[in-house]
């Protein structure tokens, strides 16, 4: 009898400890949410609609679906074309309407062009001298105009039509050659090579050969740069 009483008391103590730990974790999560998340909107801005978020992780659970595009589309159908989400303590806005995106990029371009100092080493991407990292101002406007006139504008795309046609013809010939030889083709890899050669030819005036390892070296440098940017 004495042994049963001791076992019962031990079970009660363990249950109490588990309950106490759960309460502490809940209080800590609530405190963390109020301190680090609520202060993200100190000025009381009228933010876009937002689905219910979980403590700590925010809306991360909504983006971990096997088909995240379908999950996000369901959220847009429920909350409208503007959606405010948060991953941990990082807020961002998603836009699904072409008219709203056009208004944001043209009518409110100045309001959305400025950004804070990014936590990336100055030795990467030429520091604040690059188009992506430069603060909004006269220099950034010059870089934007230069990018449009030399790469993305209608006249620039027309000038580079021959480059794209040549690379696509080379890509097509390679696929036909492999088909005649009954060789397997990694479409994802070949498409990446095609895109890389088009971009390099348009931006640097030359393509990178696969024979002497130039293309592989370039892809390795790009991958290493992204890894360093994430640190």
UniProtKB/TrEMBL annotation:
GO terms for molecular function: heme binding; iron ion binding; monooxygenase activity; oxidoreductase activity, acting on paired donors, with incorporation or reduction of molecular oxygen. It comes from the Eukaryota. The chain crosses the membrane at residues 12-33. Pfam families: p450. It is found in: Membrane. The keyword Transmembrane applies. InterPro entries: Cyt_P450 (IPR001128), Cyt_P450_E_grp-I (IPR002401), Cyt_P450_sf (IPR036396). GO terms for cellular component: membrane. Keywords: Heme, Iron, Membrane, Metal-binding, Monooxygenase, Oxidoreductase, Transmembrane, Transmembrane helix. Its cofactor is heme. Its main location: membrane. Belongs to the cytochrome P450 family. This is 3,9-dihydroxypterocarpan 6A-monooxygenase. It comes from Noccaea caerulescens (Alpine penny-cress).
